[in-house]
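As noted in the main text, all predictions were made from sequence alone. Below is one such record, for Glyoxalase.
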Amino acid sequence: MDNIIHPQTAIGHVHLIISNLERSLRFYTEIIGFRILRKNQYEAVLTADGATPLVVLEEKTDAVPKPPRTTGLYHFAILVPDRKSLAQSLFHLLQTGYPLQGASDHLFSEAVYLADPDGNGIEIYADRPREKWEKTENGEYKGVTEPLNVSDLFAQPGIEAWSGLPPKTRIGHIHLHVGDIAKAYDFYVRALGFEATIRMGTHALFVSAGGYHHHIGLNTWAGVGAPPPPTNAVGLRVFSILLLDEEEREKVAERLQYIGASVRRNENSIWTSDPFGNEIELAIQQ
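Prediction:
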């Protein structure tokens, strides 16, 4: 069985449970820079290019905070197209006074971290050119967490005033709390077909398609054996993986069924869930 996912695979959108739609919309449009693609009383779809859904916000009137030692979202990562875009976003965030949680240089990328009003973790980042990504002796990417050189970031020529997220913005990766790294490896590598790119002992694993540094991060920092959060907790409801075509999606579904994972179908999508309750939509690239 061919068990390597297609190199053009990418992360599609993230669907979040939040407690107050209007409050979240102000944050995601005025602070982050998304645009509203469509909206109803309890749900809004956000975009950067006016057409592609990137974030879905769903209000639950009975939402509760996500318990700290549970699986689910660690953060989702908004990939802007270049360093100038990252500089514009960071400068805007500093101007608004919104609290940041960190700003880091990971060698392969530069990133800023914050959380939405419900505590959902967000990374905004720009990749360095792929030829500058360093590898270790075992062939995995060398990833570090050093302080971001903000002065150098802001010293770039040609930085324009912030006007929201650029149209080429997309969801670059998602990082999840899981309960067991070995089980996560079986699901995300052996079944879904991603390749391991960075390992941090037995507590974190990063996987990707096509040699990217990571499309999905997995960690046990909420505790080994951590349970899923309550169904009405704020946080991640589902994220989508964009596959090349129907043939590729059926290959992935077959591998999932082979390990006994749930595979649920409707007219247009296939849904599954990892061993820790994280829901995934297998979608096809448009």
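The mean pLDDT is 96. The CA atoms of residues 85 and 133 lie 20 Å apart. These features were considered when defining construct boundaries for the mutagenesis experiments described in Section 2.9.
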